Amino acid sequence: MSFLSEAVNGIAPGRLVRLDRGRDQEMLEVDELVWSDRLEGERWRLAVEALDFSWAIGVDLPAADGVRLSAMASALSFDVPTPGGRVAAAGLTWVGVRPECRGRGFLRALIARHFADCRERSAPVSMLFASQMAIYGRFGYGLGSTGARLRVPGGAAMRGLPKPTPPVDVRFETASFEAHGPVVEAVDRRLGLGPGARPGWTDVAAQARRRLLFKDEGPKDAALEPWRILVASRAGQPTGYALVRRDGKWDGWVADGTATVRVFQAVDPPSGHELWRQLLTLPLVANVETPPLPLDDPLFAWLEDWRSARPVVIDREHVRLVDVPAALGARRYAVTLDLRLAVQDRLLGDNAAVWRLEGGPDGARVTKVADLADDAVADLTLDVRELGSLYLGGLSATALAGAGLIAEHTPGALAVANRAFSSERAPGTPHDF
Fold first, then answer.
1. CB within 8 Å of 41: residues ≥ 6 apart
2. Exposed/middle/buried for 349, CB within 10 Å: 0-12, 13-18, 19+?
3. Within 13 Å and on the Cβ side, how many CA atoms surround 371?
4. 72-97, pLDDT tens digit by residue?
5. Is this structure's pTM higher than 0.90?
6. Do 332 and 411 reside in the same domain of the chain?
7. How far is 18 from 39, CA to CA, in rounded Å?
8. Is 136 tagged catalytic?
9. Cα 19 to Cα 430: distance, rounded to the nearest angstrom
10. Which of 115, 136, 264, 333 is labelled catalytic?
11. Are 260 and 212 contained in the same domain?
12. In this structure, which of 75, 373, 399, 412 has its CB flanked by the most CB atoms within 10 Å?
């Protein structure tokens, strides 16, 4: 690949390169310097095994002994549900620049190469989880989904449900991939592949990624109890699971432990309700910390007082439309629409155009009608960042217009976009990447 820049103040330029598994120790060094953490043993081996090196890129700098890896990024390939459809997407991950190499354009070069790879692989959408929200907006990523973490008091009252037929059976066991990997795969497959799959869902189909669910995140976890799993089943078939760990604290003679739930999934309300009931009545547990939950998660309806759980809303997936017409054509729309969207994109110039979006619940067609110009006729004007926020149905066009981020030129166009881009389910995924 090419040089990124000329030498500045005597500092040699970097070279953008493809990475392979033979450079995993260099990647580990960058990872530890960026994240102030330490990956060891099997967890590191699995993390490398789970990585799709066909996406892996880095920046090399000259060093006394050859070259030094100074920045890196990779991605995972996903078939992501959209409202009414599915889209090929790249999950950008393992992004990092050595602390002393910041401010030299390395991240910009990595992102540009990632976008080019997305187009070469016909993946019109890129998604990521942002370590710092302020970084990725300038590259056109919009906030696509949100979630909430809860700290539910142990024994919190829940609304009852009618007794299901067949009943829900729950077992509590020490978690292991060998025993419970098939449970995770079976439940996730039902949730992620069905017609009602949540927009933005990303799976853990790769065996290494499933194995990582059962591993500690670092040496600091070694003193804690092993991960446990609650498995729900009905008629002998797995219908849900929750990975949980307790810290076993005491306040004098009063149990003050916290149960931290890493992942929670259920295919039907009875299974989900019974799993939460079991979690909230674990002995010696004062609080149960949930993973990030979509804002329409059933737990909010089941808790008699979710205010006491002190929910904290956080950002989740950030979405970037790398190929605007292909991405818009891959989803369905809640109502019939025929809109001309003036899309601004300062990084990918061929996205910057007036696009005619015609579609509805059965499909969509996107055609370019004009280049962007002061006299271009459009119903709405918006940046590709806002289009990413609309894409999964997580944010509304009305809210973005109220913030001054979408301009309406044709009366009524905003209301149509607001309804058309909506989703029956809040977007989100239980599996970060």
1. none
2. exposed
3. 3
4. 999 999 999 999 999 999 999 999 99
5. yes
6. yes
7. 23
8. yes
9. 28
10. 136
11. yes
12. 75
